[in-house]
């Protein structure tokens, strides 16, 4: 009996089957875990790519305008319309309810500082905002409950419930993208938003005013900003060129400006702005009198301005009406920023056309620059100016004895052809700032955010007043006079797009 027991104990036949029976569940378990991890990794990678695209699409719309968040949400919604499935079982299309989109004013300096889906970092700082003008980052996080038939998250094959754990796995990747916009073809000048008021409900962005036709055919006046800047003022920006005057004359600041970080400049007299802008009208004052042979300082192809004969070194308009600049606007009492709109082109331009075009009557000039494309609107000054160029009217002489023509008479470098109509030297780009909201920052050397950019048409040169005729008794220059012909963004006509450099990039 004892011998039989000892033989059974030492008998190893069939031991492999026992070991296999014991190890098989473990091996299968490891295999299932490996498959689950592989599936989870693949799904995470796919989801990460998806929310990377979502965050980039949203961030690309965060340009600081009042509708930026609306456009960003629309971009996310449109991108989610893509029928990409993350499973063959059930409806696993990624939908808007599967993600949390949060807009941020900034992000933590360290990537090790985690952000929650609500935009609060691990240090308790809340970066989230609903202000469309303040946000510049889009955070997109996948909700864990959105990918397991509404039950919680990713369903595993491994039966973890036998071990007292969950059979689901949370997969919640996150992406943060930001938007930057630079403008590279602009003068180092900003204007205060003429449609800003102290009452938010009545204020308009420059883009809104343009899109509704409120800027069309109005004459805008801006003077150098004082200690109390607001609509009707302009100021200067830091630039990389040694001379502000040359930057304005050439048409480039020598640098690209970040929309979110415009640095204002003080201590520059308006005379440099005057001198720089007036070369575009074929006027070369003493400090630029040797640049009338330099192509970079060329005038526009149409410089008609009501100027006296053979006067190249200053703007000296005639007083006998034998030559006329484009007509001024009618101003409402108390409004220092812009004139009334033109209501009747024939009467408004009648004298201008008669004097400058050999007694002719005003032709029918279409309003090609109206923002909605309505060519039946009364022509703006810019429309008239372009009509003269396009219909060979620039060389027409005005009345005797002035006999002014629109072709440049002072610029001649002896080599290059006459200035061309494209690019148009009477158009310049400049930044638009909400000066009332940023009054404290505009006083100099402070970084502020632009409300937008505008392309403006210079109506006439800047004229320096004599000390006796100036209200201040200082001989100060008269304001810059212009029309707004385009703005940046989707509400504009697109002419500023070539000057803008937009970039949306992933930060996390």
Give a brief rundown of this model.
This protein has 508 residues and is an alpha+beta fold. The chain has a domain at 15-181. It contains 8 helices and 15 strands.
Give the integer mean of the pLDDT values: 79
Query: Structural class given helices, strands, pairing?
Result: alpha+beta
Terminal Cα separation, in Å?
A: 75 Å
Continuous helix count: 8
Strand percentage lies at: 15-25%
Physical arrangement of strands within the biggest beta sheet? 6-8-7-14-13-11
- Low-confidence segments, given as residue ranges, are 146-152, 467-475
> What percentage of residues falls in helices of 4 or more residues?
10-25%
Number of strands: 15
Task: Please write the string of helix (H) and strand (E) elements.
Answer: HHHEEEEEEHEEHEEHHHEEEEE
Describe the biggest sheet?
6 strands, mixed, barrel
Shape: elongated
Radius of gyration, CA atoms, in whole angstroms:
34 Å
Structural description of this entry:
The protein has about 500 residues and is of the alpha+beta class. It has a domain of about 170 residues. Helix content is about 20%, strand content about 15%. The strands form three sheets. It has a six-stranded mixed β-barrel with strand order 6-8-7-14-13-11. Strands 1, 2, 5, 9 and 15 form a five-stranded antiparallel beta sheet that branches. A two-stranded antiparallel ribbon has the order 3-4. Helix 2 packs antiparallel against helix 3 and helix 5 packs parallel to helix 6. It is elongated and about 145 Å long.
């Amino acid at each position: 009996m004892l011998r039989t027991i000892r033989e059974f104990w030492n008998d190893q036949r069939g031991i492999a089957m026992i070991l296999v029976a014991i190890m098989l569940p473990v091996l299968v378990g490891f295999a299932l875990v490996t498959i689950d991890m592989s599936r989870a990794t693949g799904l995470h990678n796919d989801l990460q790519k998806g929310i990377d695209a979502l965050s980039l699409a949203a961030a690309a719309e965060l340009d600081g305008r009042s509708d930026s968040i609306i456009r960003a949400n629309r971009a996310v919604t449109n991108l989610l319309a893509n029928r990409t499935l993350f499973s063959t079982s059930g409806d696993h299309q990624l939908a808007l309810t599967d993600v949390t989109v949060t807009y941020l004013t900034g992000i933590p300096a360290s990537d090790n500082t985690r952000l929650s889906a609500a935009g609060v970092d691990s240090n308790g700082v809340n970066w989230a905002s609903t202000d469309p003008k303040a946000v510049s980052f889009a955070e997109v996080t996948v909700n864990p409950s959105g990918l397991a038939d509404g039950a919680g998250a990713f369903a595993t094959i491994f039966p973890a419930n036998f071990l007292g754990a969950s059979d689901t796995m949370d997969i919640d990747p996150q992406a943060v993208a930001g938007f930057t916009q630079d403008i590279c073809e602009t003068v180092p000048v900003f204007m205060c938003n003429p449609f800003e008021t102290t009452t938010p409900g009545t204020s308009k962005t420059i883009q809104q005013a343009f899109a509704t036709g409120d800027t069309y055919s109005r004459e805008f006046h801006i003077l150098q900003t004082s200690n109390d800047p607001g609509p009707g003022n302009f100021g200067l920006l830091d630039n990389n060129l040694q001379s502000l005057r040359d930057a304005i004359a050439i048409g480039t600041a020598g640098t690209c400006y970040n929309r979110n970080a415009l640095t204002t400049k003080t201590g520059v007299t308006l005379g440099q702005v005057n001198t720089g802008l007036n070369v575009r009208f074929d006027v070369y004052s003493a400090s630029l009198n040797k640049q009338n042979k330099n192509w970079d300082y060329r005038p526009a192809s149409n410089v008609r301005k009501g100027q006296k004969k053979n006067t190249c070194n200053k703007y000296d308009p005639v007083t006998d009406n034998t030559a006329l600049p484009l007509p001024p606007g009618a101003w409402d009492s108390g409004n220092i920023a812009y004139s009334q709109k033109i209501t009747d082109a024939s009467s408004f331009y009648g004298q201008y056309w008669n004097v400058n075009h050999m007694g002719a009557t005003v032709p029918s000039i279409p309003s090609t620059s109206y923002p909605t494309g309505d060519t039946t609107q009364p022509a703006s000054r810019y429309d008239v100016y372009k009509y003269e160029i396009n219909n060979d009217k620039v060389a027409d002489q005005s009345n005797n004895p002035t006999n002014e023509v629109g072709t440049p008479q002072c610029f001649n470098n002896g080599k290059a052809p006459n200035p061309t109509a494209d690019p148009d030297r009477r158009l310049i780009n400049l930044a638009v700032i909400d000066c009332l909201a940023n009054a404290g920052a505009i006083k100099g050397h402070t970084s502020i955010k632009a409300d937008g950019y505008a392309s403006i048409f210079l109506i006439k040169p800047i004229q320096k007043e004599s000390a006796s005729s100036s209200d201040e008794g200082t001989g100060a220059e008269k304001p810059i006079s212009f029309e707004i012909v385009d703005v940046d963004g989707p509400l504009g006509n697109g002419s500023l797009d070539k000057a803008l450099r937009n970039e949306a990039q992933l930060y996390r």
